[in-house]
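Memo subject: From amino acid sequence to discrete backbone structure tokens
Action wanted: Derive the backbone structure tokens from the amino acid sequence.
How to read it: Take the token row as a discrete description of the fold.
Attached in line: The record itself begins immediately under this heading.
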Amino acid sequence: MLLARKMHLHYGPIALASILILGGGLWQYSLGTKGSPATGSSLAGLVVGSIAAGIILFELLLWPRKRLRKYKLGRTKFWVAYHLWLGLACGPLAFIHSGFRFGGTFTTVLMALLVLVLTSGVFGWVMQVFIPRWMLGNLPQETIPSQIDDVSLLSALENRQMLTVALGPKPPNTGKLVALEDQLSALKSGLSVPSMGNADAMPGLDKSNAIVVGARQRRDPQRASFGQDLADDLNGADRIEIWKQYTLVIEPFLLKNIVPNSTRSTSRSPIGNLQRTQEWFKNLQASCSDSAFPILMALQSTVEERLQFDAQRMAHAWLHRWIAFHAGISVMLGVLLIVHIIQSLRYM
């Protein structure tokens, strides 16, 4: 996103990539017009191929560059700009090196792998540009990804407190609330709530060495305003219906990935997406008196917040998980390139 805003960072690498492609292409093409074979073993082919191999080596150096941040090796933004545009130049340079043809099976596989690396790199760059912008405009409740489950747990606890104040104690025959003592103890100890996919995180942690960076505080003026006046306006049917729907539908959705066997999948939940959520709460409001409207609006806001967290988690995955694939095939490309160089030197 930073590179997209500061286009002047791109001017140098774009100019260098253009010069290499045009210069190498014209040189290799001129050999063909003079009767000399335009192949990878020609002088132009060797020079262009060496440049392309050097660029690939430079591309692979970005990973150790991130590991050596304490050394002054140039600003990361310049490394990324040259990584992007010189990497894109590798495709045309490799094609020029081959004499404008794919050649045998091994070189064809090598070229296909290079195209795959370039495609994944462009895809990642597009993700880095557009996803943060989309999140900024569409996810106002965005939070730290690692604390999504923590915030959702606090929402559930606040909802319980709000309903107890506004509706009174939970009536019988309205479902059973899950116990949250273990998760709450983890938060008080400065730890994150273990998700269902990381259920073994808590037992192995030493809470005595936990460092609380900052207290997790949430204050909702709308919830704090509920008092005895609202409780007096609600009838018994409202209390039972709201508690029942909260216990069976709303809280399990908020606590998914936190408490095992406490939720149905998002696709099955009646509040699994924004449209279904709005329709479901509209029907719930119709089945309750007008006095229940403030409580239902507060509950709906917590569900919509959780939906935004789910969208943020998915966007975060798209934003970062492609890197593992891109890095893996890049290393594979580097290994095959070494094999290609060794084979070429043997047959020269």
